[in-house]
Specification:
By secondary structure, the protein is α/β, with parallel strands linked by helices. The protein is built from 35 helices and 35 strands.
C-alpha cells in the first residue's frame, strides 16, 4: 500500500513538472511572436508616414517659384503678388493633404540664423512672418540646413496641445540650379500613435490568454504522459520480483503505448525462454543415450565407406588400420586380411613422390589432393589421390584416398584434345568465353582478357564476378539478350556496350549459345565477343563527318552569300563616294562624302573580319600549311600599315633579328592578319613618336618538336595600356569604340580575331607595360621550317665587298639599314646628316676604293636629301645613289629625283630584303619608263547605248571612256533588267556582258532577238563583252546572234573603234592581247617600287580600284579557307576584265591565272598568286 501511494505521489509530481515546462515554453514563444509583430507593425506605420511626408515635401518644393522667393526679404512684402502666389501654391498642397499642419519656406539670414519666409498657415496666431527666426528648429534641420540636397524627414515626433506631428524638409532651386531655400512640412502623426496603443493592448490581452491556455493544456498533457509511465514502473517492479505473467494495458497508440507493448512482448519472451530451458535439459539426457548407438553405426559406416580411409605410422608408413575400400585399392579382399605392410617408397612408381609427400606433411602438417601412381599387390598400377594429416603429435598419419584412374585417363584424353584446339583458342582474334549460370566466368582466351582491359585471362576470371553486368552496360540490352537466349537458345551478332577494367565503354558484338542442365536451368553460356568499337567509331566519325560537311557547306554558303550581298552594296557606296569626290564639292559636302566613303570601307573590313572570327571561334577555320618567307611577310605588312601610322604623325619601324628563321611552313594570310590587327591596336593608343615592330626567335622549353618559335612585338615608346590582360583589353577597346574614339571598336574586334588565330596557331598573345615607359602587344607562333630552305639556294653575300654610305638622321633607320647591308656582306659607313655624307664621299673619292653606292634620306635637318643627291650627281661623287623616301613622299619628289638622275628608291618603313635587292639592282643597271596614249573618240554621234554589266568597276570604266563623247549611257545590272529596258525604249547599241547573275548574256540575247523580231523593223547591234574570248570565238558569237565581240580587258581605242564601226555599218573585233608569262609581267623577283602609269581618264579612280583589289585579295583567301571556289573564280574573272582597263596589265593576267586555278580547285596555286597580287599592290606607285 505504501509503495502504491509513493507511486501516485511521483505521478502527480511528474504531471506538474511537465505542465509547468509546457506552459513556460508556450508563454515564451507567444511573447516573442507578439513582440516581433508589434515591432514590425510599429516600424511599418512610422515608415509609411515618413515616406508620405518625404513625397509631400518634395512635391511642395517643386511648386515654389524660387526666383520670386528670392525677392522676399522684408515683412512688408507679404502683401505683394509674389508672396501671395507662393503662399497660394503652398496652401493648395495643404488643402489636398488634410493631415498637413504647417507648410513654410525658410532660408538663413546674414547672421546664419534660420528664418521663415512664406507660411501657408491661415491662423494669425500661428502664422510666421518674413524674416522671423525659427527658434525651435530641430538639431537635424540645423546640422543639415547648409548641405541639404534632397528631402529629409525627422527621426522623432513632437507634440503640442493640438496633437502629435512629424516634420520634413526639402530644398528648392532656381533656374540656374542654385538652392534658394528649404521648405518645411509638418504632418499629423496622432493616428499612428493611437493605432500603436490599441495594438499594444490587444497584444497584451492575447499574451495573457495564451498563458492561461498553456497552463490548462500543460496539465492535460502532463497527466496523459505521466499515467502510462507510472503503470510501466509498477509492472517492471512486479517482473523484477519474478512474476513473468505481468502485463501492462496498452491504452494509446503513441510512443508510450508502443513502450507498453514492447514491455509485454519482453515478459512473454522471458516466460518462453524459461520453459525452453527446462525442455532442453530433458532432451540432453535423451541425446546421451543415443550417442552410444551412433558410435556403433559410425564404425559400420567407416568399414563400408566408398572412399579409402586409413591410418599409418609416420614416417615409416606402416598401416595401423584401414577400411575395406582402401584394402581393395591395394589388391586385398578386405581390411581383415591386410598384413602389416608398409606404404613406403616401394609402393610408388615414382619414389620421389613419396619424399615430396613427407616434405609437405612436415612443412604444413596436412596435404590435400596429393596425386601419385601406385603399385597394387599384383604389381599393376593405379592412380591414387591422397588427403592426409599428421596426428598424435606427428607420430601417425590418418587420411582419405580415392582411386581416380578412370578420371585420370579421361582427363588425359581431354588434355590431348585441349592441346589440339588450344592454339586456336589462345590465338583467336575474337574473345572466347564460357560462363556459368550464376554469372561466373569459367574460362576465357587472351583476346577476351585484352578486350575487357585485363592483363590475362586469370585476372579476368578472378575479378569479374557477374559477366552480365560487365558485358551489358545498358540494362535494357541485358534483358533483350537473355530474352533472345531463352527464346532461341542462341544469339548471333548481338550489339552491346561492355565495360572494361578501367570503367570505359566499348562497343562489341556477342554470339553465344546456352547449355541447360537436366532440370532445364541455364548451366553454361558459351560464346565469343568481337570488338566493334573501332568500326562503330569509324561509322560515327563518318556520319559526323558527313553531317559536319553538310553544316559547313550550309554555313559556307550562307556566309558567302551574306558576305557577297553585303559587299556588293558597300562596294557601290565606296565607289559612288569616290566618284563624288572626283566632282566639285563644297567643303561641307566633301567632308560628308569622305565620311561616307570611309564608313563604307570600314564596313567592308568588318564583314571580312566577322567571317574570319566566326570560323575561328567555331573551330571551323582551317589554317593552311604552305611555304612562305617570314621576312617578306613582316616587311610588307609594316609597309601596308605605314600609311595608317603616318595619318597619326607616327613613324613605323620594322626590325627582324638576324637569327630569325625566314622560310617557314604555315598560313601567311592569317599570320599577316594577326600582325595587322595587333599593330593597329598599338597605333590606336600611341600618342606621338615611334612604333616599332620587332621579330625574334624564341625557345619554349616545355615544347618538344613543335617547330620554330618566333615572337612578334609591336611596341610604342609613349602610350600605356590600362591592363596587361588581353581579355580586359577587348573590353577596353570596345569601351573606347563606344565613346566614339576612331577605330577603337575595330581594334577590339581585331584583337579578338588575333587572339583566336594565335590560339589556332598554337601560340599565345600577351600585353605588357615597360617600366621605362611605353607598352607592347606581343604574340608567339611555332611553325615548321621548310625542309628545302630557299635561303640555302640564294647567295649568302649578295653585296659582298661593296662599300656603301648610309646617310640618315634617324638612328633606328640607320641601324636597320646597317644591319641589313652587313648581313648581305657590304661594308657600311654611317653619316648623321647630308653635309657629313658629302664630306665622306669627297674624302673617299680620292681613295683607291671609293663608295660604290650611297643611301640618302629624303628628309634631313641641315640639307634636303634631294639637294644632297643633286650635288652627288653633279660632282660625280658616287656612281649609284638611292633615295630613301619618307612616309609623306609625293609624286613630285619622285619626278624631281628622276630629273636629277636618281632612278632607285626605298620607301619607309624600310625592309631588309628590299634594301639589299634595290642596291644590288642599282649597282648593276638603271630601269626605264614607258607610257601610253588613248584616242579621244571624235566622230561619235549622240547615240543611246544600253550597257549591260554587273561589275560596278567595269561600268565606271566604260562611262569614263565615253564621258567626253555625246553618247547617252543607260545601265542594266543583269540580263533580266536589260530585257525590260530594251522593250521599254529603242537603243542604238547594246554592250552585253556574258557572265551575270539572275540572267546571263546568252539568255538575254535570245529574249531580245525574239521580241525584236516581232515588234521592231530594225535590228539593234548587240556587242558581246567577255574576258574568255579566244582567237576563234568571233564566228561562234556572231552565229549565236551577236554583231561583234569585244574582249576584256576593254581598251578605250577598241571600244571607240567598235562603236564607230557599228554606227557606220561596219563590223570589227576588238584587238586581242598576246598572252605573256605572269612572272615576267609582275617582276616578282625584285623588291623595288613598281611605277605604274594609268589611263588619264581613269586616274582619279585608280587608287580606289587598288584598295578594292586589296580587299578582294582578303576575300579570296577567306573564301579559299571555306573552299568557296565559285566566289574566287568570279573575283578572278572580274580582275581579268578590269585590270587592263586601268592600265594594270599584270592584274588582268593574274586574274586569268586565279580564275583558271579556281575552276580547277587548285588551292595552292590560288594562294601563291593571291600573295603575288598582294606583293604587287604593296609595291605599286601610280605616276
Amino acid at each position: 500500500m505504501a509503495k502504491e501511494q509513493a507511486g501516485k505521489k511521483r505521478t502527480v509530481s511528474l504531471t506538474i513538472k511537465l505542465a509547468a515546462s509546457f506552459a513556460v515554453f508556450a508563454t515564451l514563444i507567444a511573447a516573442m511572436l507578439t513582440y516581433a509583430l508589434y515591432s514590425e507593425v510599429r516600424g511599418r506605420l512610422k515608415e509609411d508616414i515618413r515616406v508620405r511626408l518625404r513625397d509631400v515635401a518634395a512635391v511642395s518644393a517643386l511648386l515654389v517659384d524660387a526666383e520670386a522667393h528670392a525677392l522676399l526679404t522684408h515683412p512688408s512684402q507679404e502683401s505683394t503678388d509674389q508672396y501671395r502666389r507662393i503662399r497660394e501654391s503652398l496652401q493648395r498642397v495643404r488643402g489636398r493633404a488634410t493631415e498637413v499642419r504647417h507648410v513654410r519656406t525658410m532660408r538663413k539670414n546674414e547672421k546664419g540664423e534660420i528664418v521663415f519666409v512664406v507660411d501657408a498657415t491661415t491662423r494669425s496666431g500661428e502664422m510666421a512672418h518674413i524674416g522671423e527666426v525659427y527658434k525651435t528648429a530641430s538639431k537635424a534641420l540645423i546640422s543639415n540646413f547648409d548641405t541639404l540636397a534632397e528631402p529629409l524627414v525627422e527621426n522623432g515626433f513632437y507634440a503640442d496641445k493640438r496633437g502629435t506631428w512629424l516634420s520634413g524638409y526639402a530644398p528648392f532651386y532656381d533656374a540656374q540650379g542654385r538652392r534658394e531655400g528649404i521648405i518645411g512640412v509638418d504632418i499629423a502623426a496622432g493616428s499612428i500613435l493611437e493605432s500603436l496603443i490599441l495594438f499594444r493592448v490587444r497584444a497584451i490581452f492575447v499574451l495573457a490568454f495564451t498563458m492561461l491556455l498553456a497552463v490548462v493544456l500543460g496539465l492535460l498533457l502532463g497527466r496523459r504522459l505521466a499515467s502510462p509511465i507510472a503503470g510501466l514502473t509498477q509492472a517492471a517492479r512486479r517482473v523484477a520480483e519474478g512474476d513473468l505473467s505481468m502485463r501492462v494495458p496498452v491504452m494509446t497508440s503513441d510512443e508510450t503505448g508502443e513502450l507498453a507493448a514492447v514491455f509485454n512482448d519482453m515478459t512473454a519472451r522471458l516466460h518462453e525462454s524459461r520453459q525452453r530451458l527446462t525442455t532442453e535439459i530433458e532432451e540432453r539426457r535423451s541425446a546421451q543415450a543415443a550417442l552410444s548407438q551412433s558410435e556403433e553405426e559410425f564404425r559400420k559406416l567407416y568399414g563400408d565407406a566408398t572412399v579409402g580411409l586409413y591410418k599409418t605410422t609416420f614416417p615409416e608408413g606402416r598401416i595401423i588400420t584401414c577400411n575395406n575400400r582402401f584394402a581393395r585399392m591395394l589388391g586385398f579382399a578386405s581390411s581383415d586380411v591386410v598384413p602389416e605392410i608398409r606404404l613406403g617408397s616401394e609402393r610408388y612408381v615414382n619414389p620421389e613422390q613419396r619424399e615430396e609427400l613427407k616434405r609437405l606433411l612436415l612443412e604444413k602438417g596436412t596435404v590435400d589432393s596429393f596425386e601419385a601412381l601406385f603399385y597394387r599387390e599384383d604389381n599393376t598400377t593405379f592412380w591414387i589421390r591422397f588427403s592426409a594429416r599428421l596426428v598424435d603429435h606427428g607420430e601417425n598419419i590418418e587420411g582419405m584416398a580415392v582411386d581416380f584412374t578412370e578420371e585420370k585417363t579421361a582427363v588425359d584424353r581431354l588434355k590431348a584434345a585441349e592441346q589440339k584446339y588450344r592454339g586456336i583458342f589462345e590465338n583467336a582474334v575474337e574473345g572466347i568465353f564460357q560462363c556459368a549460370g550464376d554469372g561466373r566466368i569459367l574460362s576465357a582466351n587472351p583476346a577476351m582478357a585484352r578486350l575487357m582491359g585485363y592483363e590475362s585471362a586469370d585476372q579476368l576470371i578472378s575479378r569479374v564476378e557477374d559477366f552480365p553486368l560487365a558485358f551489358f552496360a545498358a540494362p535494357e540490352k541485358r534483358e533483350d539478350f537473355f530474352r533472345q537466349i531463352s527464346a532461341k537458345g542462341s544469339v548471333s551478332g548481338f550489339e552491346t556496350c561492355f565495360l572494361t577494367s578501367d570503367g570505359s565503354l566499348r562497343h562489341g558484338n556477342i554470339s553465344a549459345r546456352a547449355v541447360y542442365d537436366e532440370g532445364g536451368l541455364l548451366a553454361l553460356l558459351e560464346g565469343s565477343l568481337e570488338d566493334a568499337t573501332e568500326r562503330r567509331r569509324a561509322e560515327e566519325l563518318e556520319k559526323a563527318r558527313i553531317e559536319a560537311e553538310a553544316r559547313h557547306r550550309a554555313t559556307r554558303t550562307f556566309l558567302g552569300d551574306l558576305g557577297r550581298q553585303m559587299r556588293t552594296p558597300m562596294n557601290a557606296v565606296t565607289g559612288m563616294g569616290q566618284l563624288l569626290l572626283a566632282t566639285e564639292l563644297a567643303p561641307t559636302q566633301r567632308e560628308y562624302v569622305e565620311t561616307l566613303k570611309a564608313a563604307g570601307e570600314r564596313m567592308l573590313t568588318l564583314v571580312a573580319d566577322m567571317l574570319v572570327l566566326s570560323k575561328a571561334e567555331a573551330r571551323t577555320l582551317e589554317l593552311e600549311k604552305i611555304p612562305f618567307n617570314l621576312l617578306e611577310l613582316v616587311e610588307k605588312t609594316c609597309e601596308a600599315m605605314a600609311e595608317k601610322a603616318h595619318e597619326k604623325n607616327l613613324e613605323l619601324l620594322c626590325q627582324v633579328m638576324p637569327n630569325t628563321p625566314h622560310n617557314l611552313l604555315g598560313d601567311p594570310f592569317h599570320l599577316r592578319q594577326v600582325l595587322v590587327n595587333v599593330t593597329a591596336a598599338i597605333l590606336g593608343i600611341a600618342p606621338v613618336g615611334e612604333v616599332s615592330v620587332s621579330v625574334q626567335p624564341v625557345k619554349d622549353p616545355l615544347r618538344k618538336d613543335s617547330g620554330e618559335g618566333v615572337q612578334y612585338c609591336v611596341e610604342c615608346a609613349e602610350g600605356r595600356l590600362p591592363t596587361e590582360s588581353v581579355a580586359a583589353l577587348f573590353a577596353f577597346f570596345a569601351r573606347m569604340g563606344g565613346e566614339a574614339q576612331s577605330g577603337a571598336g575595330d581594334q577590339a574586334l581585331g584583337l579578338r580575331i588575333a587572339a583566336q588565330l594565335v590560339e589556332l596557331m598554337g601560340g599565345t598573345i600577351f600585353a605588357k607595360n615597360n617600366e621605362s615607359g611605353g607598352c607592347a602587344l606581343c604574340f608567339t607562333t611555332f611553325l615548321e621550317r621548310q625542309k628545302k630552305s630557299a635561303e640555302a639556294a640564294s647567295p649568302s653575300s649578295p653585296l659582298k665587298d661593296l662599300s656603301i654610305l648610309v646617310a640618315d638622321n634617324d638612328t633606328k633607320s640607320r641601324n636597320l639599314l646597317k644591319e641589313a647591308l652587313n648581313e648581305a656582306g657590304a661594308r657600311v659607313t654611317e653619316a648623321e646628316d647630308a653635309q657629313s655624307a658629302i664630306t665622306l664621299l669627297k674624302d673617299a673619292w680620292m681613295l683607291p676604293r671609293p663608295f660604290d653606292a650611297v643611301l640618302i634620306s629624303r628628309t634631313m635637318p641641315d640639307m634636303d636629301g634631294l639637294e644632297a643627291a643633286e650635288i652627288i650627281k653633279i660632282e660625280h661623287l658616287c656612281p649609284v645613289a638611292v633615295l630613301v623616301l619618307g612616309f609623306s613622299a609625293t609624286h613630285e619628289d619622285v619626278e624631281r629625283a628622276r630629273e636629277i638622275g636618281i632612278h632607285h628608291f626605298l620607301k619607309k618603313p624600310l625592309k631588309k630584303g628590299q634594301a639589299v635587292s634595290v642596291l644590288r639592282s642599282a649597282v648593276r643597271q638603271e630601269r626605264g619608263d614607258k607610257s601610253g596614249e588613248a584616242d579621244d573618240g571624235e566622230g561619235l554621234p549622240p547615240i543611246d547605248i544600253l550597257l549591260v554589266e554587273d561589275s560596278e568597276t567595269n561600268r565606271f570604266v566604260i562611262r569614263a571612256y565615253l564621258k567626253n563623247t555625246p553618247c547617252r549611257i543607260h545601265i542594266a545590272e543583269n540580263g533580266a533588267k536589260a530585257v525590260e529596258k530594251f522593250m521599254a525604249q529603242p537603243f542604238d547599241v547594246v554592250l552585253m556582258d556574258m557572265q551575270m547573275p539572275v540572267m546571263d548574256g546568252y539568255e538575254a540575247l535570245s529574249l531580245i532577238r525574239k521580241w525584236e523580231k516581232e515588234n521592231r523593223e530594225k535590228k539593234t547591234p548587240i556587242i558581246a563583252m567577255t574576258a574568255d574570248a579566244k582567237e576563234d570565238d568571233e564566228v561562234r558569237y556572231i552565229d549565236t546572234g551577236f554583231d561583234a565581240l569585244l574582249a576584256k580587258p576593254i581598251k578605250k581605242n577598241s571600244l571607240l573603234t567598235m562603236l564607230l564601226h557599228q554606227i557606220l555599218g561596219k563590223k570589227t573585233v576588238a584587238p586581242k592581247k598576246e598572252v605573256d608569262r605572269i612572272m615576267d609581267t609582275l617582276g616578282i623577283g625584285g623588291d623595288e617600287p613598281i611605277l605604274a602609269w594609268v589611263n588619264p581618264d581613269l586616274e582619279e579612280l585608280a587608287p580606289q580600284y587598288l584598295k578594292t583589289l586589296a580587299k578582294s585579295a582578303d576575300t579570296m583567301m577567306v573564301c579559299l579557307g571555306s573552299s568557296d571556289f565559285d566566289t574566287v573564280r568570279t573575283l578572278g574573272h572580274r580582275m581579268k576584265g578590269e585590270g587592263n582597263a586601268f592600265g594594270f596589265e599584270a592584274i588582268s593576267r593574274l586574274g586569268a591565272v586565279i580564275e583558271d586555278a579556281a575552276a580547277r580547285k587548285n588551292s595552292q596555286k590560288i594562294s601563291d598568286y593571291v600573295e603575288k597580287l598582294r606583293d604587287f599592290l604593296t609595291r605599286v606607285e601610280i605616276v
